[in-house]
Amino acid sequence: MELARHFERSVWLNPEPIQTWRGNTIAAVRNVVDMFPLTLDGLGEALGHLTKGKMVRAAGSEAAALTSMSWAFD
């Protein structure tokens, strides 16, 4: 996939239930990008994956929200 080659880090937030991830199309996408469920936990995991080793800058309430999500940056 062109996007995966262009960007250093990318993820796919999959709205389908994890139980259905065995299909051929989803398997093909998973071979190209890291896939996470489109849930609050999955979003946190994806954010942690994308920001691993990087400083995240935000202002005001966004900074407070990111600070309270420190689990996402482990």
UniProtKB/TrEMBL annotation:
Superkingdom is Bacteria
Q: What name does the UniProt record give this protein? A: Uncharacterized protein
